[in-house]
Amino acid sequence: MNRTRPPLTVVGLDPGLANLGLGAVREVGRAVTLLGAKLVRTSPSAEQSARLETLYREVSRFFALYEPDVLALEGQYFHRQREVAFKVGQACGVCLLAAQEHGLEVVEYGPMQVKQALVGTGRASKAQVGYMVRATLGLKETPESHHVADALALALTHLSARQFQLLR
């Protein structure tokens, strides 16, 4: 059975208060192309509310620029790092608000799911994930920031999951 896949634009987002990675990819047929990527940084010396406003504004701009259909977000699993979990949770909150305002479907993938989808093992290293992002998108270099590489990996993971759904 031949199922034609409609074009799809996916933004992957690696959330963080200090460093937030964004990556946009577009799939047309079986071809996947990089639309753009960005690292959003906030200063630890800035007020928390100002940092969150910066994230919200930059994520909203990214969504407006690339007009994605889906946001693929990294699921956060912190056990002993309560302060980090709280700050990342706040960053996720403003990103989810921006996604809602742009009418995006939001899907969440855990780190092991991303590694499994791209590398074939849930225990892959960041270097292996970065290499597969580079290879899959035909980039000359691995993204400089691992946050951006992770964001692109999340977007590619969603496209991989979509392939499996279409096979059903």
Please give a structural write-up.
This protein is of the alpha/beta class and 168 residues long. It has one domain (8-167): Nucleotidyltransferase, domain 5, CATH 3.30.420. Helix content is 49%, strand content 23%. The protein is built from five helices and five strands. The chain has helices spanning 48-66, 82-101, 111-119, 126-137, 146-167; strands at residues 8-14, 19-28, 31-41, 70-74, 105-109. A five-stranded mixed β-sheet has the order 3-2-1-4-5. Helix 3 packs across helix 4 (126-137), helix 3 crosses helix 5 and helix 4 (126-137) crosses helix 5. The longest helix has 22 residues, at 146-167. The chain is globular. InterPro entries: RNaseH-like_sf (IPR012337), RNaseH_sf (IPR036397), X-over_junc_endoDNase_RuvC (IPR002176).
Summarize the structure.
With 168 residues, this protein is of the alpha/beta class. Helix content is 49%, strand content 23%.
Give the class from helix and strand content and strand pairing.
alpha/beta
Number of strands: 5
Question: Which spans of ≥5 residues are poorly predicted at pLDDT below 50?
Answer: none
Number of domains: 1
The CATH architecture name reads 2-Layer Sandwich
Q: Tell me, what is the CATH class?
A: Alpha Beta
Instruction: Give the CA-based shape.
Output: globular
CATH superfamily: Ribonuclease H-like superfamily/Ribonuclease H
Main β-sheet, spatial strand arrangement? 3-2-1-4-5
* Distance separating the two termini: 10 Å
